[in-house]
Amino acid sequence: MNTLAWTDNLVLNLPQLDTTHQEFVELLNAFGDALDTGADALPTYQALLTHTEAHFAMEEDWMARCGFEPQNCHASQHAMVLNVMREALRYANELNDREPLRILRTELAGWFPQHAEMMDAALVWTMEQRGFDPVTGECGEVVAAESAGAGCGSSSCGH
């Protein structure tokens, strides 16, 4: 049983990001499968965490190159998710408590589509508007520091 289905709603028409997102979904499903079968889920969870760290770092690099403020709410959400994922791993390793991993599986499956459809879609839109090429890392539009406060796409964002 899939933890999260890959659907057209998750496609943002940016190949680098769509591939990364599809890999995230596949890794989340592999982790869920390990939990469901009673296998040791830690290796698949560690692979998911490692992928998620690189995934978020890639997006945050793009944000920096496009002129997002360093402390924007998109990056803050990444930090919160990684903190929770790392804490669940610590519980599993140090306390032999696997329950946070089971809970996190469900929470990530609910969180990810919303994040992709709102915050990541806003990032892609900003990249397009500013002529950013994720392959070369070049931004066609020079973003002045005083106008760099690109928001995250959330209606609650103060930018």
From TrEMBL:
A Pfam match: Hemerythrin
Gene3D superfamilies in UniProt: Hemerythrin-like
Keyword 4Fe-4S recorded: no
PROSITE patterns noted in UniProt: HEMERYTHRINS
UniProt keywords, alphabetically: Iron, Metal-binding
Bilayer-crossing regions: none
Domain called Hemerythrin-like: residue spans: 16-122
InterPro entries: Haemerythrin_Fe_BS, Hemerythrin-like, Hemerythrin-like_sf, Hemerythrin_metal-bd
Family named by the database record: Belongs to the hemerythrin family.
Protein name: Hemerythrin domain-containing protein
Species of the source: Pelomonas cellulosilytica
